[in-house]
Amino acid sequence: xxxxxxxxxxxxxxxxxxxxxxxxxxxxxxxxxxxxxxxxxxxxxxxxxxxxxxxxxxxxxxxxxxxxxxxxxxxxxxxxxx
Length: 82
Description:
This protein has 82 residues and is mostly helical.
């Protein structure tokens, strides 16, 4: 018989929400990386001023912030399951 009273709770959920969050964040990160890849290919920034002009656009700043939020959330769920 297994004694379940000494079981350590890790906080991992392993549910539908975590699965869905991981898929949505992966799709968002893929779209962002494709968009930024095309942007860098088309604009071809070579120096600091060119990169600064790329990130002067408020939408790119917001998308970049959301990319890092998605990346950290995606990684948190992956490492939470191990």
